[in-house]
Amino acid sequence: MAQLPLILGLLISLAYFPLTSRAPTWPRSIIKTIPLLAFSLAAYWGGGSAFLVAGLFLSALGDFGLSRDGDGPFLYGLSAFALAHLLFILHFLGLSGAPIYDAFSTVPIPALVLVGLMVSTELWLATHTGHLQWPVRIYVIIIGVMGLTALALPFGLTVMGAGLFIVSDVILAISLFRMSDTYHHRLKAGYAIWGFYIAGQALILLGGLAAL
């Protein structure tokens, strides 16, 4: 049963690729929101944890917020994703049964690289976000902790999914705050953001269901 909404979500996500760099419209927002709603339904029907189901659902709300124009929808989307990551942290902790800091002893190099990436955002990101500086800083910390929690798990679908999610967000941050609107690679960046994001969320979903 869980396969049907998963496949539906993946198919609709393909329809969004040509829209990644288009101006915000209601049809565009709806198409962007449906895949994660379908993933959340797949997690529910598949018997996934409540944290996984809710995290995917909040991600859909985040997709909707980021599909609209203006600081208000952006902060709404950022907040929804921050809450989604907090739920993913709880989901990953339930899967691993290990504390977050366990990643530093089991996989120290990836854990230190992730911390280094978080710290580096003070140089290449935070100073370019204007009045959104503190919301972005808080989000960086939350998604970084999510990544560390995932690293405490044995390497597999969930770890790869969390990694792809982080890669997507790094590209998104560069696109939003460091690229000009006329930059010639903006279209490619939009494809990469969406592709890594959907792949990451799908792997987090599949990893959660596989662990049952």
Automatic annotation (TrEMBL):
Lineage: Bacteria, Pseudomonadati, Pseudomonadota, Alphaproteobacteria, Rhodobacterales
Keyword Transmembrane helix listed: yes
Transmembrane regions: 38-62, 74-95, 107-126, 138-156, 191-211
Main localisation: membrane
Protein name: Putative membrane protein
Protein localization: Membrane
Family as reported in the entry's similarity comment: Belongs to the TMEM86 family.
Gene Ontology CC: membrane
Keyword tags: Membrane, Transmembrane, Transmembrane helix
PANTHER family, per database record: GH04784P
Mode of membrane association: Multi-pass membrane protein
Gene Ontology MF annotations: hydrolase activity
